[in-house]
# Entry
Amino acid sequence: MHCTLMNKNTPVVKLQIDDDTSAIVKITEALELAYLPIGIDFKSGIPNKKELNEWWFSRSIPASRSGIREALEELNVSHTEQLLARCYGLSLSDQYWMKPDHTTLKWSDINFFDHSFSDDVGNILFGQPAENEIIDLMSPCNTSDGWLKKKWKIIDGKRCLIKAGSNPYMQEPLNEVYATKLHERLGCTNYVSYTLLWDNGMPYSVCENFINTDTELVSAISINKSMKKRSQNSTYDHFIQACEWLGIPHMSEFLNYLLVFDYLIANTDRHFGNFGVIRNVETLEWIGAAPVFDSGTSLWHNKLTKVIHAYDETESKPFYAKQSKQMGLITDFEWIPFDNLKNIKEDLYEVFKQSEFMDEQRIEVIGNAITERVQQLQEFVMERKHRM
Ligand SMILES: Nc1ncnc2c1ncn2[C@@H]1O[C@H](COP(=O)(O)OP(=O)(O)OP(=O)(O)O)[C@@H](O)[C@H]1O
Ligand SMILES: [Mg+2]
# Structure
């Protein structure tokens, strides 16, 4: 199929897609390369085909998504990549799409921000059988990332992402809601607010889309790719330098916040796909760090209650594998409102006690663990001040 990769209304490159594999097999013409996804090299005047394919396939649902095998069977497709073309590659996290050359379609005719979409794919991804004989595959769920079961749904006119939890405690949705309360206590203004939804006895987190028709989420993965890493640079230095080179402001302050926040909740999964930056897709102006999202893989969510110890070393991402080492990257602690962190376990009780998957002892142990984390953070800050 001959197509044009579009960024909202801007034609970016003309290319050819293989109908069977959805792979980009040929790039035929470069049009507006400044509007390419961040991180794709185009020094030779034509975008790097391998990198463009990686980006294109990374828009499909990851093969590791919980329950994907059964969903694909129900959808009658063999690979998640095949779903991309069914929705023109459109997403609710950015404005890229593939316009088939034989159509006169415009972005305004089909985007998911202004047009409603069927719940068919979302429901099937959640393990429900198809309601209609003909499944409507035009869905932003086809381009959603991450391993947890999730779906986009329009609730009261708003595009919302609904995410499930994982066995045995189904704790991730509760963690997202607790994280929301902790952001408030920390005085953060740039976070995604999550609420709880119960369906058939199962907890889900719900959040509104933080992207609108003029913006896109650029992941830290793409930012890292925008510059070649010098071997002498640490992962942290490379990321900061890439941000500076692209002209993205205030990222070290943002990371100071994120690292402290992740420390408090013992987040083990802040990989480079779990934070990013927002860019205006019309002007290409950088707006700043994306609001903090996806904090559910935390609070010892997959640990048996008896092995939860606040003082144990926690594995971490994205800069160092150990949280104690990653904390060394923080350049400013002055902003931490320790006074607001008293009794933080009360917020946790309030959220966790709603779930039958959490027994009282577990709630108590996790509540005590975060209280200890605050103390530990305070000791760490004092020690750092002493050394300076
Ligand atoms: N509120 C939102 N608005 C726009 N895009 C979002 C929003 N929340 C998440 N996304 C996009 O959806 C992707 C998947 O969401 P999320 O990271 O919350 O899922 P996950 O399954 O927990 O991911 P992981 O595999 O990292 O655990 C994100 O990487 C981001 O690109
Ligand atoms: Mg994620």
